[in-house]
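Dear colleague,

Following up on yesterday's call, I've attached the two folding results inline so they're easy to grep. Please treat them as preliminary; we haven't cross-checked anything against experimental data yet. The first protein's sequence and structure tokens come first.
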Amino acid sequence: MISPLDSLIDDPEQDRVIAALLPHVPVLGWTEAALRRALSDLSLPPDDAPLFWHGGAAGLIEAWSGWLDRTMMAEVEQASGVTKLSARVRLAIVARLSLMGPHREAARRAAAALALPGRARVAARCLARTVDAIWYAAGDRSADTSWYTKRIILTGIWSGTLLVWLRERYDHDEAALAFLDRRLAGVAQFGRLKARITEGLAGGPSAPHSHSEA
């Protein structure tokens, strides 16, 4: 099974340029003009912009998304004392939001840019990679049919949480985290209900017992 994580590329030079670019995005957007400013800040020739602009705005956004995924995974890997899968999923999502926190306006502009016609493939690729990264960071290594179910569920949780986070007017995450906790609790309750139903159908502990036959 090929994971979207297989396409993650660790490019220190590109990461450095993206870091310098982010402060300019709120004013200039994900544009070549912002990229030229970033190169100038790094004492690099602005005329080198085409070297980093080959994928256009979508390419820069995807590079930033990849950096966020890699950094989030590294941070969660270092976390100790959190072993429950759902808690580690929450930890991974919170870590990624925290990494985006200083650049909320750049994140808003990135979301708007990827929503434009012609960028659906890049948007889908970024989303799939992030969901995979969250599950991987949480410690899930499943390769059976549950792999698809888990990622479908987490896609809804991550997308909804991100949308709430992007809509928050100030640099607070309370609404997004409350939404996240509700969704995670809902999934846990669904899982318990599903387990009880499965046991009942199989005649397990949850099934009603008849003592008329002995």
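Below is the second protein, in the same order (sequence, then structure):
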Amino acid sequence: MDIDMNGGRDRIAPMFKDRHVLITGGTGFLGKALIEKLLRCCPEIGQIYLLVRSKKGKLPRQRLEDIFANPLFETVKGLRGLDTLISQCTVISGDVTEPELAISPEDRQLITEKVSIIYHCAATIRFDETLKKAVMLNTRGTKYMIDLAKQCKKLDMFGYVSTSYCHLNEKLLLEKPYPPPADPHKVIKAVEWLEEGVVDGMTKKILGDCPNTYAYTKALAEALVVESMDEIPAVIFRPSIVIPTWREPIPGWTDNINGPVGLLIGAGKGVIRSMYCDSDGYGDYLPVDFAVSAMCVCTWNYVGNQDHKRNIYHLVSSAEIKVSWEGIIERGKWIVANKIPLNGVLWYPGGTMKRTRWEHNLAAFFFHWIPAFLIDCLLYCFGYKPILWRIHQRIAKGFEVFEYYANNQWDFDNATILYLRTIINDEEKVKFKIDAGGVEIQEYFENCIRAARWYILKETDDTIPAAKRHMRVMWWVDKICKTLIYGGLIYYIGKALYSLLFASVF
């Protein structure tokens, strides 16, 4: 296919001009970043419709205001003004877990008459979610969205955001459909009919070799999208582990502690001292600004270039950048200890990764559970609420999921993205960056920790000098404790050996 490079001028943003877009999951991490990218880089886009449900007493309109209150939108608000952004976004009250998406007839007509591009991002990303809830949201919710897409009169693309980690039996995942672990239609019907407690009792048997409900239900949803490709123009995006922004619009921005950020904070606070993990292994990570840029470029290729042969896209990075699990933790510990300390550090950042479960369990007993118990006892005695035991319970639960991924290895083919890099011009390569050029790993992790300090932990820069002083104290405490512990062990081992030698000689 011959591609007109347009004299080096951007072709991607103009493709979105006057096109109406529907986004589900807009209140989530990826969804927020996608909305911000479209508003900032594609200002002539038509109306952006956001399917939002009421949550925790907040109406959909209030949740839209919360989205724009996020620091992520400060740059685009400065460029275009808050009123302009809000006028360009229309909230559709609905819920992907409900029949007919709980959309009013008027809103359904609006969508089917106006929308030409759909990004279905809504999902539960909890790996320990109950199977019934995961099926209702990830699988049945996708079916409902496909049904809506089939009614759209101007539909140019239905984009389903899946994950590159949903076909875990494939050690090398190719950009092609894979058979689902079960018939998604039958699973939906069974889960609808059965009580949640009954489904919970059958979950392990239903999942089989699949390690969690997230991967299982996303694989089922993919099958539904593949099935629909004969009827609607549908594509599948398979991003890997989506992590904080590399640079746009804020370096290191995130709104959660999932993935590596949680590990960095846990290790930096001195709470995580041991992990059962193949330290030389690596995961595939993708900064969220790269993910949404890739989604825009893929949309342009599919819609603008009418390249319908390429309809499954791997949004991954490990073919170019491989950072081991140990590399993440060691970088994080060094940055927190030497450059950007966190407040309230309980223990000088340390600990190691264990290659066997028994080593980890032993280390966790002495360095996680015993300190948690002792510190909580002190907190209780001084009139404070004990928290550390509960924190370690959450960490242990998270490790149950993490260990499967940390001790297995997958690789991903991303031939389509490599191809797209060859057909976008210089301006588009800057505006919609989809390559790893210029990425400095150390700088990136520093930005992640600094942003987590600001946006997640709410620790301001004026507290850094005190945090550095506290870190120096913790270094001495750690050194003294190690000297006493190791010195004591050496003393008792030596005494035992001397006694055995003395007894054997005399």
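For the second protein, one point worth flagging: The first helix runs from residue 12 to 15.

Best wishes,
A.L.
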